[in-house]
Amino acid sequence: MFSFLVSRYKDYMPLWSDSPGHPRRNLNKRPCTPTTAFVILSVLFNLFFAWQFFWPWPSALDNYQPLNQHPIVDEKVVEPLTFENSNEYAVVTGLYTDAFATAVATLGHTLNAANSTAARILLYLPERVSPRALCVATASGFRPHAVARIPPPHAGVHRHFLDQYSKLRLWTLDTIGVRALVYLDADTLVRRNFDELFSLPYAFAAVPDVFLDSRAFASSFNAGVLFLRPDSAVFEDMLPKIATAAYPAEDAEQSFLNHYFGMQALRLPYAYNANLAIKKRQPEMWRDLMAAEVRIVHYTLVKPFLTGDYAEVELEKLDKNVESKKRARGGAFVEEVEEWGRAWRQTRRLYGDVFDQCRSAT
């Protein structure tokens, strides 16, 4: 029996033996087979592509770098505007509520300072705008042009945009001789002449929109600054389609225009519609825009001339309101609000006598 046990365990080696006579054997060591290598590489590749999918490389604008310092316009090829009639080229804005009257007056002053040679036309809704507000808005040079309101075709439009479909009346201005126009929202400010836009051969142009959410620097355009060639036939084509086309209702005419002109629209540089959202999204890009190229600033996120929920500010209280707006959005737009405030004070100094007369307008 003893001999059997000896023969059975004669090659036994303790697994945890530390004795010199019994060297420890590494039982976990296995050769790496091609299958194992393939599985490991496959896992690594999948992890890499998953990372690329969920954390993609930022867009060129979110990853903005000041690489190109050349001007966006070659001044040598820009020809001065020649007019066959006083309305041939026009800068147009809109007034659908009294609350924006001081903004329109200030916009007009900055247009004068930029030495734009185009006519000034103010589209307004007679039933929504008081004689006093119309007087204030036209003090700096805009000529009033009454239009009929176009009501929203669907429910769901943002309450601040309920009159915005009336902007489509821009396409009817060919009836008064306008061949090309630049439309500016009342909450814009002109920093530099942009007459070069009137030479564009295209039917429609706008600046891409910018959002603070995942839409980021979008391919859709913002309708706050538009170049277009008025054509009543286009207006007649658009009008029934605002009710039949499929598009998000909340953004009103901007959403519709993106669907109507989305494929054909010429995208303009951000210098023609410097949306305040750019500063929040890419401060370095904003700094470079403001330093040299910006023609038009768009006060989308902060409106120095409004209070509360788009409420009108009395002329006497506007300076104080501007000061309070410096704190809006955590003080992110102090410089821009101050710039609007300076433009307003210049406007008031130049046209204050007219504003005083407007108080008695009926």
TrEMBL record:
Record key words, sorted: Membrane, Transferase, Transmembrane, Transmembrane helix
Cited Gene3D superfamilies: Spore Coat Polysaccharide Biosynthesis Protein SpsA, Chain A (3.90.550.10)
Molecular-function annotations in GO: glycosyltransferase activity
Record SUPFAM superfamilies: Nucleotide-diphospho-sugar transferases
Keyword Coiled coil appears in the UniProt entry: no
Segments passing through the bilayer: 35-55
Pfam families the UniProt entry points to: Glyco_transf_8
This protein's record includes keyword Zinc: no
Protein name from the UniProt record: Glycosyltransferase family 8 protein
Native organism: Sparassis crispa
